[in-house]
Write a sequence for this structure.
């Protein structure tokens, strides 16, 4: 393999590259944030860069476009493959800060209420032990001595094991510290495991990481294992997005070369390590202080995280390699926490398409322990639905597509700086009402903004109930590109991009398909159970939409069924909340296991009812308006 | 570090070497058999070699000797350190074949009677499974599918785990073999573990290895795990002997440099791999067919095998790092069997000086399940004693020294070709009566021969009851070297060495010290329990002495106490037998654990009674003849 160098001039970064890689991939790996919402498909046109030295090769001749620009040649980073050393400039407007790590506010409230799970029993517990010195009357081995002291602290640690790597360090660790040691003990499922034996000061700080590996976005929280307090959190785009926007396209990508599974794996590890590095700096923490990691994610993401071939998920009948994963050490994954720290996928998956992120949501909402009939919808790149109560749980998944996550819609972007979160247009030519992240000029629109935008345009009939843009609508905002109608949401001088932000017909269709899949999934799942929407006593909306979502608007466009609003709760990242709970509580870990065993999976992919409902749900809000009595159309 | 080459001319071997290594060490690593019984101390004079090119450096100026010989300079290999490339010739008489692998007869009889342990449940069981193909109605994961099929075979396999390395191969292994697979499941102590998923033909042959890692000698047996049949066996000198003759000197050696623990570890791995390689060739077996290894050995040997610092064993109060070891994979040790095969130290140690080799002997003899009072003595490089019955067990160790194993006695050698096993001298000047291994001309004397030699010389008063050689004995065989008396056992023309085989005064003293330690250990242990020798209903002699030992002679010299001969059984390698039993039976593994928990250790090292008894036992057979009524002195 050739070893090339790509110089990112604006950043002073010289990134190593291999022939045949795209500039986008190389940038992603080097931590250079180039905007890309389409997963490197060449459709979103966000990733325009200027090659100032050297030449690039087209990925696909048929779709290739380049133009002379100031200082070089303007190309799409995702469509340009390197074959020699090149230098690249990234125009401001293409720097979406996409791969930038951003701090997030700690989760609060019911979802992370540890009180439900009894005493704190984190995934790794740390004990400050003062062992009896060996004497002629007490000659038991170092390991027995340690074990005896641990069982004195908590007899329920049995059976307790040790890995050879840790045992090898034990004799010296005990003697160097005069038998006063901090001992980290991981919960390894059926057994406990001695994970580290360190100087006593190590016990002063026991930290863990809760991880939500989303297809598009990865979120982590740094947690004090002694108190359960969340020290800080951060999110970043999943670096794997350079290899495909959804799980299927990523699986396909891994099958196209022998080293690709490893590269896919490395991309998520790099993403996580960058998040960790941010947290370490932000909170003045060293990696060795972090002695446990609890992970939630969908089946494909988890397989990639562990470098397991996920291709069976793609093939009918979509069986995953494993739903319940062995607890591994951070060293095995090269995750930048204590090398012997337990990395536990505490939330098993139910199936290839109902992953541990969903079962984490169940544990976090507590619906598996509730009397009332609850319904959980997690709208991410995929849409998953769980319905049930303490006695039974049923789940399904529907390929919603990542439109609401900011992928497949030209104007869309994740909820980072400059993203429009709230949107209202009343027909006034001059301006729209909006709010954006960090109050910045619009750069694009995130999930909640997209919902309000559709609702708003439908309300004043810029679009009709089928989503078609009304070309006769009396406004200069109506526009056209390549025979496709569009509607200008923001004029060039209003945006951070010096270009208009426009929603096109195909964007709206993508959004409607996404919402239709979710709605149809809910409807069919309830139908199969002979339940009506009105039977649902509590509904949780988790995932891409933050707490800022206007649920009235979500019902208005038919993303959510029309149920009394007080029964509807937007809960945010319940997968991360679930990872947090299982990081902190053995009881939560047990519940996660039990919940999965108790959950029945309904396969909608070949269900004719689902197809019918999907088509009917492609309307705003639905073909059958009687189901949306509160919506005034 | 310098990288040098030592050419062993007779073998055409160019061995890599580092400056400062002795020729003996280098030869050992290269598999070139140079005789050495003293552990490289420069005392046994066996390792004379001729340096034909280049110069060597003395290890110890004070003891250095070299002489001109045909073709070069004659030196002791153990005392000659390399500092440049050299070439070496090894005279025939110095090629003791010491490190040669030799086949052994399979163990038979009571010690390896599996009938005592119920149905066969080997350390790794292999199942030929035909899994249901995934369908739309049966979408459980690959791992669940495998687990379901395994539990259908045997519900008691729960809880069952899998290592990440094996899980990574699972999806492909299932699909390449159309879901017909051979699955190896290891017993991992508190859990079972899926160790390998392979094509169905792999289930046709399930082999395991029973290993006895002795301080001086390593023995292995290749076993058919389906039937328990012993396919073949082999022994070899432990390659670590170049680093010290006993456990203490080896521990000291490992503490003298940062890479030495690793080298000590590598020496035993190399020894084992050479034994395996012999068995594979001899029995037409491939390494991947071997899916389990059960190991017995003393605490130090086991720590070195796992590359754990054994130095705490050397320091008062001699606590070992661990007595019970984690089950590891062959890959972790680079042992040449299936990489994921379980390597299990199935016999825990009791203490730093009563190792798993002894607890293996207990399980093999069955004394832990017997009504009668039994006594087990294992005379190896160390001497260990267990006394008890099904209700209680007590043990002790005594540093017998390796004299009876062929170390520390100039004329001694292990029981390989040319070793004298039986010896009788009646005063006739011309010849002694003897038998030797493979009927070859005498090269040296092994354990049983040494016992008979002492008994014979004592009987006709060549030596008196204190072991002193009688200089007035009317024989030309009486000789002298450097003011030390000796007795010629074989004349030069009778031996394979073209030199006489002589026993010197200090050799006899070493042998008496060894036997005295064993006898004193037995006496004191029984005394502490208020038991007399006559209370012992069954006595087992295990270890260095083969079944050929004349027990009358062993009693005559006071190696064994004087008990009725029908109560005395020479059982051979009971450690290897124990390793075999635990390889084949879960019940044996459980008994091994329970036995150790039930065993009480008595520390004789600082016991004044022991010191008194040791001195009294330094006589033939003892100062107090009334304790040996059957011995006619």
């Amino acid at each position: 393999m050739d070893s090339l160098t790509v110089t990112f001039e604006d950043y002073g970064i010289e990134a190593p590259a291999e022939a045949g890689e795209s500039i986008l991939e190389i940038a992603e790996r080097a931590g250079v944030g180039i905007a890309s919402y389409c997963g490197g498909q060449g459709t979103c046109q966000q990733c325009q860069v200027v090659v100032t030295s050297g030449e690039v090769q087209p990925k696909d001749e048929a779709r290739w476009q380049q133009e002379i620009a100031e200082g070089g040649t303007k190309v799409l980073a995702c469509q340009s493959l390197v074959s020699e050393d090149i230098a690249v400039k990234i125009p401001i407007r293409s720097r979406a800060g996409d791969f930038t790590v951003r701090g997030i506010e700690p989760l609060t409230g019911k979802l992370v209420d540890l009180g439900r799970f009894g005493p704190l029993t984190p995934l790794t517990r740390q004990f400050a032990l003062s062992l009896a010195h060996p004497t002629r009357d007490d000659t038991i081995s170092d390991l027995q001595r340690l074990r005896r002291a641990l069982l004195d602290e908590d007899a329920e640690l049995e059976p307790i094991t040790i890995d050879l790597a840790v045992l090898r360090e034990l004799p010296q660790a005990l003697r160097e510290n005069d038998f006063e040691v901090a001992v980290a003990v991981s919960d390894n499922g059926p057994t406990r495991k001695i994970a580290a034996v360190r100087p006593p000061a190590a016990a002063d700080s026991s930290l863990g990481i809760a991880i939500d590996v989303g297809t598009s976005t990865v979120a982590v929280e740094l947690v004090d294992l002694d108190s359960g307090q969340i020290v800080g959190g951060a999110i970043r785009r999943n670096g794997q997005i350079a290899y495909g926007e959804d799980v299927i396209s990523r699986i396909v990508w891994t099958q196209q070369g022998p080293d690709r599974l490893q590269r896919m794996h490395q991309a998520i590890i790099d993403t996580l390590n960058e998040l960790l590095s941010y947290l370490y700096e932000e909170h003045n923490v060293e990696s060795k202080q972090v002695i446990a990691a609890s992970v939630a994610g969908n089946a494909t993401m988890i397989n990639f995280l562990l470098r397991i071939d996920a291709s069976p998920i793609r093939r009918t009948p979509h069986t995953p390699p494993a739903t319940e994963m062995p607890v591994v050490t951070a060293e095995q994954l090269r995750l930048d926490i204590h090398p012997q720290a337990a990395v536990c996928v505490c939330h098993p998956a139910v199936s290839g398409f109902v992953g541990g992120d969903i079962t984490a949501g169940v544990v976090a909402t507590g619906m598996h322990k509730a009397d009332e009939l609850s319904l959980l919808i997690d709208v991410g790149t995929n849409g998953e639905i769980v319905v049930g109560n303490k006695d039974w749980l049923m789940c399904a998944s529907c390929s919603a597509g990542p439109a609401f996550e900011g992928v497949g819609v030209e104007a869309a972007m994740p909820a980072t700086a400059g993203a429009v979160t709230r949107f209202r247009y009343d027909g006034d030519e001059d301006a729209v009402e909006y709010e954006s992240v960090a109050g910045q000029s619009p750069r694009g629109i995130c999930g909640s903004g997209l919902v309000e935008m559709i609702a708003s345009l439908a309300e004043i009939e810029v679009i009709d109930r089928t989503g078609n843009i009304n070309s006769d609508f009396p406004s200069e905002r109506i526009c056209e590109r390549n025979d496709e109608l569009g509607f200008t949401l923001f004029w060039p001088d209003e945006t951070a991009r010096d270009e208009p932000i426009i929603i096109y017909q195909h964007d709206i269709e993508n959004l409607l398909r996404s919402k239709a899949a979710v709605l149809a999934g809910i409807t069919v799942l309830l139908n199969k159970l002979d339940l009506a929407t009105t039977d649902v006593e509590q509904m949780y909306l988790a995932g891409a939409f933050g707490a800022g979502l206007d649920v009235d608007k979500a019902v208005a466009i038919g993303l959510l069924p029309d149920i009394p609003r007080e029964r509807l709760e937007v809960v945010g990242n319940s997968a991360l909340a679930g990872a947090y709970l299982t990081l902190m509580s053995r009881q939560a870990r047990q519940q996660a296991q039990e919940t999965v065993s108790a959950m029945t999976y309904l396969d909608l992919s070949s269900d004719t009812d689902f197809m019918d409902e999907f088509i009917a749900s492609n309307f705003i809000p639905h073909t059958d308006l009687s189901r949306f009595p509160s919506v005034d159309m």
